[in-house]
Amino acid sequence: MEKGICVAGNAIIDILYPIECYPGKGELTTITEGISRATGGALCNVILDLAHLDPALPLSAVGRIGNDAEGDLILSEMERFPNIRTDGMIREGKTSFTAVMAESTTKQRTFFQYRGANAQLCEADFDWSKIDASLLHIGYILLLDTLDEEDAEYGTKMARLLHSAKQAGIKTSIDVVSETGDRFARLVPPALKFTDYCIINELEAQNATGIPLRDADEKLITENLPKALRSLFEMGVSTWVVIHCPEVGYGMDADGNFVELPSLRLPEGYIKGTVGAGDAFCSGVLYAAYKGQSLEDAIRLGIASAACSLSADGASDGMRTAADAMELYRSLNGK
Question: Is the domain defined by 4-8+43-64+83-88+124-333 classed in CATH 3.40.50.720?
């Protein structure tokens, strides 16, 4: 029987508030019509995206949600797909939620996060004898409090967990949450020592490596991208490093081969929401890696998957099968 992909980490309910503009401190803005609730976080977004990309792909979820209506919603969304196993989901406490403030004009998002049950996810929640997968994807580092704790031997408990997965013969993939501050330098490098696939955005790569990737005008410093990719390999990544940006996708393999593919030019009015686009890109890359495809094809599918996600308000509502995603890519790319 085919081994599949285990997706673990943050299981969140996103409460989306459309706003006219983001206010300054002490100022007021208007919440417009269209408040919505949807599943979010690395676990929910990636596993649902993968289920769309391949309805026959064996998938298993490991995470923590509360004994509440929000936890019920997360489980019901996963259980719509017969290829997702949810017996690894532990129910205790209160489900994590994020208040997402989305500007109506720019689509820029700001997040206010309540950790909830996610904070208690730990290595003991992973029963390697029951996880029948060849690849583990977990996110987000910096947003899983117990796994972000210090470990005397491995640096962090997340690093210990990834080491245990590799000892069980499972390849590993990580994602990181975008955050300012010095925690990147403490919490990300230990995990990279036991990571096979690192798929993060340019701001996360910048914070992890200390290499600037955007200038004061927010323009990409393109000549620094290969340096950042190599730096992440030097921190311990074994197979692929992929950095995704709104403008372009970059990647490098263990032999130093560099890939650069531009994002699709989307028609005016195409983008309905940006929540989950990064996770969709990640899902495309993961699926291609699982299927043994090339790094270039993986980034291409990642770009196609992100474009699917952008076509709908919810993180996974616009997702399609891998074949249909690539058909969309070709239609928008003109090739």
Answer: no
